[in-house]
Amino acid sequence: MKKNLLTAVLSGLIATLAVGSLAHAAWPDRPVTIIVPAGAGGGTDGTARLLAKQLQDEFKQPFNVVNNGQGGGIVGHTAIAQARPDGYTLGIVFNYYQWKSFGQADINSTLFTPVALYNVDPAALIVAETSPIKTAKEAYEGLKLAGGKYKIGCGGACGGSWHAANAELFIKYGIDARKPVMVPSAGGAASLQDLASGGLDMVMASLPEAKALIEAGKLRPLMVIASNRQGAPFGNVPTSKEAVGIDYEGGAFRLLAGPKGLPADIVKTLETTLKKIWDSAEFQDGMKNRNFGMKWLNSEDTLRFMQAHEKSLAATMTAVGLAK
């Protein structure tokens, strides 16, 4: 009888483990939430919806985008980090480490399980079409000699992605990044309009944000902070290496991640599927039609990218006097 009881218990245990294994292998077997720490209609939201549509096509389950842009993105990033690590809550992570430098929130790479980085939009330096500054080299020499005479728009919050990329390049060139008068705004569009109307000398922003005003003949890009020239219609804009002799890449990035502890098999499934999506004509065309930059890093390389972002941004925020 004891033998029969033991056999029954072992059989039940094996069956339970088998069912659990099958259930886990079936991920996803219900809808998945993708948290976007930004409002609807912006760039992060746009890229997330492109991904969600194709993830849904691949996995035959809904991938629902939920916007949570409160606190400039702090609330949404916190929600991703605090989610249950079961694969049913993922999120889009973008430039985040400035919040720690500002003393606002300790958002860092240890809180997440990165799946893949899929997008980098390089920062650019832009002037009004009527500006006497004709080249980035000329702008940098002016800033080096008398930085305090220039008013520069941050293209959003000072310390954000556009400002940080430009400030780091200033430092590499030997410019005292504390001297220019840095002007924050509600976003890139506000800074660019102020530049077009003569209220600023330069603006740090992205080329896609400035596209309409560039095509209208009101603004002129001096350089893009990237290793390669961008696609049409910005193919004539020189890179930082061409313009000021420094090969550097900086700007806004977006990556897909889950909370810390996301199971390795789910990460691998997502990474493999995301690479398939990233390589597809549908995704490539959708991103390029919106002038989003294309960059791919796998899970391990994305973690290293995040760690490098934290190290470089901490140093830059200290150098420009914004670290708390």
From TrEMBL:
Pfam family, one: TctC
UniProt-listed InterPro entries: BUG (IPR005064), Bug_dom1 (IPR042100)
Designated name of the protein: Unannotated protein
Organism, scientific name: freshwater metagenome
